[in-house]
Structures are given as C-alpha cells and as structure tokens.
C-alpha cells in the first residue's frame, strides 16, 4: 500500500517519516517537493507550499497508519490518500512486509 499526505515543511515531513518508520507503521517513506497546492478553505481559494510524503506499508497496517497520521498531523483536515500496490519487485514487496511485520496472509 502507498499512503500519501502533504505537510507544510520539510522538517515536519521528515519527522512524520522517521516516526512512522520507527513505529513500524511503514517500511519507508519519501519526502518530495516543494509542491504548490491550491485548495478551497473557509470559503476562499488558498495557495500553499508543501512537501508530499509517501509511505510504503501493508494493508494490515494502513488503518493504524491513518489513525496515527490524523493524530500527529498539524492540519485540521490532513490529506491522507491510500492506494493499493498490485504489482512490483517481489523482493521489494517482501522487504516491506518484513519491515512492518505483516500479519496478513500473502
């Protein structure tokens, strides 16, 4: 699974990645950016510079990662998008499963 969020600074993004990996909620995470985001907020169009964070995890850890992100994230309504990974390097996918202690069947 890939779980994506955005956050307002590189330091905050790196903190999210390091903490999620340290808690074994994700095997790894990447920080991209800066990216420019435009969105509706409180009745107006806002623009912000953010960092995109992509976590790699397994389905069995996704709910726990989402719950933790909702608690740890400074935004009132953080972006948290989850996408399944249907295929990839088998060795890499096995590494992800091993790093997060995937309890689900293969």
From TrEMBL:
InterPro entries: Ion_tolerance_CutA, N-reg_PII-like_a/b, N-reg_PII/ATP_PRibTrfase_C. It comes from the Bacteria. Belongs to the CutA family. This is Divalent-cation tolerance protein CutA. It comes from Isoptericola chiayiensis. The lineage of its organism: Bacteria, Bacillati, Actinomycetota, Actinomycetes, Micrococcales.
């Amino acid at each position: 699974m890939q779980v994506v969020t955005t956050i307002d600074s590189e330091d905050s993004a790196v903190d999210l990645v390091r903490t999620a990996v340290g808690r074994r909620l994700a095997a790894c995470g990447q920080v991209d950016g800066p990216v420019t985001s435009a969105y509706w907020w409180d009745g107006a169009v806002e623009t912000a510079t953010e960092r995109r964070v992509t976590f790699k995890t397994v389905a069995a850890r996704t709910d726990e990662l989402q719950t933790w992100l909702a608690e740890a994230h400074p935004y009132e309504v953080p972006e948290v998008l989850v996408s399944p990974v249907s295929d990839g390097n088998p060795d890499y996918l096995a590494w992800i499963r091993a790093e997060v202690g995937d309890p689900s069947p293969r």
